[in-house]
Design brief:
Number of domains: 1
Number of strands: 3
Shape: globular
Largest sheet: 3 strands, mixed
Radius of gyration: 19 Å
């Protein structure tokens, strides 16, 4: 019954937000870096953090400090969707929220100081990676659905690390969001509040899983996004580009903008690729080194293939 209430609340919240966004012009206007051509409501991903807040209210399964941290990082991200904020302010709130999450998850009681530092780096890197990758219709929500379903399977059949509502509520939000976003012409985009909000929560869940399982291989449930970001950064360094400047050199951008593949096809390909990797992780028990070598080699081969194929067009687009 509570899940039904949360579903209805999230649908109502998103429909209400559409009216507010149109009233106050919270929209995404296409520019030369965009992978879309229509003015679209931005910030529809607000239902991702709302799903956790509703979960806390109805199930009372969310740690209060963790909930405050999620609210903080989502609020600053939404404010940035409405009007761009200074980078130092956003990064400061990100760091504060991640530190609060690490405290709430009691990482400092489980791991040494270097482990706490790595947890912070992992969460901040993951948050930014999700934000970088949120550029085409459906990719953030479909990728998040696969990640949450993977976590649910692990929680149900491998090792229990979280209460079910912490996985089911954001999954409901992703499915609702897909109804409005997974279209040829999306009715809304996630915005920073969506991509950063869901990334923060997935990062927190992954830290919970690693603490309970004592197995770092579960970091690879984000390997597709991580590989795309890593290889894109390497390419930009080779091109001597300013990493702080916007670009269109991610693999998904090459596939959409230069190869001409539809947004939804690329989003599904990314999701299925990650699903395949997740299945491999669950069915095997190799060392971290072997996982890293295999997965990075495959991802590198795919990225290099498409990058070489569309190198000329992608380089011209940056000039």
């Amino acid at each position: 019954m509570n899940y039904l209430i949360i579903t209805l609340l999230l649908v109502l919240a998103l429909l209400t937000y559409f009216k507010i966004a149109k009233r106050f012009n919270i929209v995404d206007v296409p520019n030369h870096r965009s992978s879309h051509t229509e003015v679209t409501v931005r910030g529809g991903g607000i239902i991702f953090p709302l799903s956790i807040i509703f979960c806390g209210l109805l199930f009372q399964d969310v740690d209060l400090v963790l909930l405050i941290a999620l609210t903080l990082i989502s609020a600053i991200s939404f404010a940035d969707d409405v009007r761009p904020l200074p980078a130092f302010l956003r990064l400061a709130v990100h760091l504060l929220s991640v530190l609060m999450a690490v405290y709430a998850l009691q990482v400092h009681l489980q791991w040494p100081l270097w482990g706490v530092a790595l947890a912070c780096v992992f969460m901040i890197s993951g948050i930014n990676a999700f934000n970088f990758m949120d550029g085409i219709n459906g990719i953030t929500a479909t990728y998040s659905v696969i990640t949450l379903l993977t976590f649910w399977y692990i929680n149900s059949f491998v090792i229990r690390f979280a209460d079910d509502p912490l996985l089911v509520c954001p999954l409901i939000a992703c499915i609702i969001f897909l109804f409005f976003n997974f279209r040829q012409r999306a009715l809304c985009f996630a915005g920073d509040v969506g991509s950063i909000g869901i990334a923060f929560w997935l990062g927190a869940l992954s830290v919970m899983l690693i603490i309970h399982s004592h197995n770092l291989k579960y970091l690879f449930v984000f390997s597709i996004y991580g590989s795309d970001v890593l290889f894109t950064i390497i390419k930009r360094i080779k091109l001597k580009q300013n990493l702080a400047q916007p670009h269109r050199l991610h693999l998904y951008q090459l596939l959409v903008n230069h190869a001409g593949y539809p947004h939804r096809v690329v989003a599904i390909c990314y999701t299925l690729a990650q699903l395949t990797i997740n299945g491999f992780l669950l069915l095997t028990n190799f060392s971290m080194g072997i996982y890293a070598l295999l997965l990075l080699s495959i991802c590198a081969a795919v990225y290099i293939h498409f990058e070489r194929r569309y190198r000329t067009l992608s380089t011209v687009s940056q000039s």
